Amino acid sequence: MITSSGSAPSPRRRSEKSRRATLTAALELCAENGYGKVTIEAIAARAGVSKKTIYRWWPTKGAVLLDAVTELVVSHSEFPDTGDIDVDLRTHIGMLVNLFNSTVMGPAYRGILSQVLHDEQLARAVNDELVIPRVALVYERMRGAQEQGQLPPDADLPLAVEMLYGPLYYRHALGRPMPDPEHVETLVAHVMRALRSPERS
């Protein structure tokens, strides 16, 4: 096809359009039918691309959905820096709760988490592409708060991150209701109080 300017469309632009269509199709199918019923064939048909195109970029449907979920998390759960670490944690955790509750991301990520028990390659990808970078983001924000004196210099920040975010993944993986805003506020308050307690060992 030739554009009105007389030049052929950029291959890079065509590739990005196909990639986006594939990610959108995968999320839609997962929301409609559940992770287990999603196939590469169905994704290709919905996206209007060939199976060969999909396999050129992703080895499995889990990899497709992981890319889609990662993009959602990165674009919809920024970590603010208002100067108040407690407020920022409540905001960030609230954003993640909304994502886990959404029909767009919720079923896809739950399916991925179930699949990592049987797929070592996907498990590594989940950690390398999603979990580790996001944990590092939270850790660095808390380090900044520590340097500003909002947290004790000897606070165990990696443990704090697990205490704050572990309950979300536990609930999501088991299909339990996500915490409401009041519960999120209580969670952050309890963890921050434990970090600041002069009696902690």
TrEMBL record:
Organism the protein comes from: Streptomyces xanthochromogenes
DNA-binding region, residues: 39-58
Entries under Gene3D superfamilies matching the protein: Homeodomain-like, Tetracycline Repressor, domain 2
Source superkingdom: Bacteria
Keywords tagged on the record: DNA-binding, Transcription, Transcription regulation
Residue ranges occupied by any HTH tetR-type domain in the UniProt entry: 16-76
SUPFAM superfamilies to which the protein is assigned, alphabetical: Homeodomain-like (SSF46689), Tetracyclin repressor-like, C-terminal domain (SSF48498)
Entry-linked InterPro entries: Homeodomain-like_sf, HTH-type_TetR-like_transc_reg, HTH_TetR, Tet_transcr_reg_TetR-rel_C_sf, TetR_C
Protein name per the record: TetR family transcriptional regulator
